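[job 4471] stage=fold_predict status=RUNNING
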Amino acid sequence: MGYIMEEERRRILGRLRRIEGQVRGLQRMIEIQAPCVDVLTQVSAVTSAMKKTGNAIIRANMTRCMTEADTGKGREDFQAALTRYIDLA
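[job 4471] inference complete, writing structure tokens
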């Protein structure tokens, strides 16, 4: 089980590195005043990538997250965080 979790962690980190590169590209586009259509397309791509990464994190860590949140305040915090994520998705 540890190997599977480690592999998933590596995949998630890879996704985040690609998103980081996309955001840097977006910054360059703003700096050079790229056409609005191109900028918005890149913003859409970054947003989609972040949503997919959030889904991957939840899928890979749901059991651990729920176990950590097994106390009253922890459960409330986890539910609030999950609700915020769902509202953004």
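[job 4471] summary: The radius of gyration is 17 Å.
[job 4471] exit 0
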